[in-house]
Predict the structure of EamA family transporter.
Amino acid sequence: MIALLLALGSSLAYGCADFLGGLGARKAHVLRTVMVAAPASLAVELLLWPVLGASFSSAAFGWGAASGVASAAAFALLYRTLAIGPMNVLSPVTALVSAALPVGVGLLQGEHLAAAGLVGLPLALLAVVLVSAGHGAGSAHPSRTALLLAFGAGAAIALQLIFLHQTPSDSGVAPLIVGRAVSSAVTLIAAGLMRRKLGSERPAYAMSAAAGVLDSVANLLFLLAARSGDLTVVAVITALYPAGTVLLARGVLAERIHRGQLVGLGTAAVAVSLLALT
């Protein structure tokens, strides 16, 4: 139950971070937004160091660095995917892949589900697709390149979660600090190489920083959930993050939630209840 609650908190924080990051990216090039968000995120993790501790063993450093590279790759592939579109088709593909791969890894590592979990897990995967799908998805047809990028983005997100799950349980926030430092370095290098394409618009500093803070909170909650529960359950619940984005878009931007997304939210509630019984 603790792992489930932590995963739900991680999902909500990821959804809020994506919402704020998306709004920030409307005002300036997305790399400018990340250049503000990444240091804010790293600062949070450094502040957590004295509270939660950090053991920089070779395993913590290695898996943390790997998660940082995967995080940077996920960011690049995801935004490239959504830029090509259609978002309402590619977003659920990415979310489903990011949930399904950790499930496969967890089962291969010997994790088992009770009867309720065997029903709740497929329902949660279905909810991921329904919640993240936009209106009118059936009328749009993505290109082969866009689909490949969507699978790549989902795989990179999944790898980030899997790598964090592999970190030693006594390493504290060390993997998060290393991962964030690596992903920040990759982002800064990319920004330097693309400086002529970034434009002159200033990022929304407060919004971008808030997105970075929430992303750190999401990573921390996922790490704690993965250390206290099964990856098969934690990863799927975390992948419900589009629900938070959808609800915020409805409340703040007055965007319409279509029928399929409402069904997805209801399916998610049922799935979480079943998984809580495992």
Q: What stands out?
A: Residues 58-84 form the longest helix (27 residues).
